[in-house]
Amino acid sequence: MNKDRLIQADRNHLIHPVSAWRDHEETGPRILKSGKGAWLTDIDGKELLDGFAGLWCVNVGYGCQSVVEAATAQMTALPYATGYFGFAGEAAIELADRLAALTPGNLNRVFFSLGGSDAVDSALRFIRFYQHARGTPEKKHVIGLTRGYHGSTYTGAGLTALAAFHRNADVPLTWQHHIPSPYPYRHEGDSSDAAIIASSVAALHAKVEELGARNVAAFFCEPVQGSGGIIVPPAGWLTAMREACRALDILFVADEVITGFGRTGPLFACEHENVVPDMMTVAKGLTSGYAPMGAVFMSEDIYTTIRDNNPPGVAVGHGMTYSAHPVSAAVGLAVLDLYQNGVLASGVTAGKRLATRLDAMRGHPLVGDVRISGMLAGIELVTDKTLKTKPSPELGISKKLAAVGYEEGVLFRAFGDDIIGLAPPLCCSEEEIDILCDRITRVLDRVG
Ligand code: PLP
User: Fold this and answer.
1) In terms of Cα–Cα distance, which of 376, 361, 278, 293 is closest to 327?
2) Average pLDDT over the chain, rounded to whole?
3) ipTM surpassing 0.85
4) Chain CA centroid to CA 315, Å
5) 121 in ligand 1 pocket by Cβ < 6 Å?
6) How far are the Cα atoms of 95, 252, 443 from residue 98, in angstroms, in the given order?
7) Any ligand 1 atom below 6 A from CB of 151
8) Are residues 15 and 127 in the same domain?
9) What distance lies between CA 332 and its chain's CA centroid?
10) Region of residue 262 (phi > 0: left; psi between -120 and 50: alpha; otherwise: beta)
């Protein structure tokens, strides 16, 4: 199809995820054609530096031939193998084995999903199975954070508190609850690290008390909140929340769909504080976006409790046709090789450069806050630094950012009118980080 036909066909037929349908029919789509490293080329041949790694997933960068070859070889040999009825493909077994050795503590058991939303959904079902198996079936309530994002299935959207995922959707909120997110920049009162941590711990205790400790199953959080505005909690927050969950006898689930696979430096963000969750959900960087796949890692204790509760011959009733898909698993193995052979280290070096450059942007008149964890960063925009005033919607900053960013040849994500999100591929060189930050500065100058 030529470009005009593509645009028309897109507007007439393709429904885009999480997008403003009305706007899209007037202005969309932006058609991407190819990619190499951290760079994308659109249908007109315009080169764009991808400061968001697709949708914070293409951690290893575009055009990695070893990944393409692994997928091709797997597709040629065996494009599909079910995991049902005792069957398995080789790649999924090998990937589970390698991941079990890399996950924190005894998170040795791996269930593969198709992405992050159904990883969260699966985790929630496994949690129910577990609470039934250990004789505490009344433990049904699950607590998340007000700025948490855990996918857009009905259950995941329930755990997600962000308004856009609830509007007109009648998401049933019978057992999902939320406590305030740690948000250092906008924390009211004493905003020392210790005070922020203490207020989150107190909020969790209060919520559990309100619901009754015997009724609460788990607490879910992202180590760094992503879609809620890239909010980095103070050091020690994760440890304190993990300990609080242990004291309250509720499971601690780390949703590392964004933070996993080197995004914040180490393979998993929990490693910053040596925190071992009871369960962990991942996706995105697991296959670096080359094929769809997510996973739930569960502790040995949860696994054996569920297993031992089911009599022989009785299935644990959860799974999807494409769980542990062989092509995605082969891609996962090739991507893991890349992480271990330089990409993780490259992300750490590039992350340091990104921190230096973003720190220097704090003086910009529009920049109220900069937060960064490895190669994950948020820039919060304000129109009055002292009062921390958010840009008013009439200024239309979000639309301007997207348009001007494209003109300047840089892709990032605008969250509402006040937060710019950055998550460049980990393979970026320091020079590319400089180009990225130069372009972002020009964008800010132009929209300010
Ligand atoms: N959990 C978190 C923390 C996420 O950021 C996302 C997606 O951005 C999801 C879950 C859902 O993942 P997916 O979009 O692959 O379904």
Assistant:
1) 293
2) 96
3) yes
4) 31
5) no
6) 5, 23, 42
7) yes
8) no
9) 17
10) left
CA of 368 to the centre of ligand 1 (A): 27
Q: Is 256 in the pocket of ligand 1 (CB under 6 A)?
A: no
Tell me the two tokens of residue 176.
């999902």
Judge if the beta carbon of residue 227 lies within 6 A of ligand 1: yes
- Residue 420 contacts residue 51 (beta carbons within 8 Å): no
Same domain, 94 and 48: no
Ligand 1 atom closest to Cα of 256?
3
Of 285, 302, 327, the last residue of a domain is 327
Q: What is the number of the ligand 1 atom nearest to the C-alpha of 294?
A: 15
Please work out whether the CB of residue 120 comes within 6 Å of at least one atom of ligand 1.
yes
What token pair was written down for 80? 């599909």
Q: What is the pLDDT of residue 31?
A: 97
DSSP string, 72-120: HHHHHH-S----GGG---HHHHHHHHHHHHHSSTT--EEEEESSHHHHH
Sign of the CA dihedral with 263 first, then 70, 431, and 397 last: negative
CA of 294 to the centre of ligand 1 (A): 9
117 lines ligand 1 (CB under 6 A): yes
Confidence of residue 28 (pLDDT cuts 50, 70, 90): confident
Does the residue 334 lie in any domain? Answer: no
Check residue 376 and give its pLDDT: 98
The label of the residue with tokens 């780390």 reads 254
State both tokens at 402.
């997207």
Same domain, 82 and 34: no
Q: Which amino acid is at 150?
A: H
- The CA distances from residue 229 to 79, 259, 290, in Å, are 38, 14, 25
Cβ(332) – ligand 1 distance below 6 Å: no
Domain range for 256 is: 78-327
Answer yes or no: is 72 within a domain: no
Share of the chain above pLDDT 90, in %: 91
**Which residue's C-alpha comes closest to atom 12 of ligand 1?**
116
Ligand 1 centroid to residue 296 C-alpha, Å = 13
CA of 375 to the centre of ligand 1 (A): 17
Cα–Cα distance, 198 to 223 (Å, whole number): 17
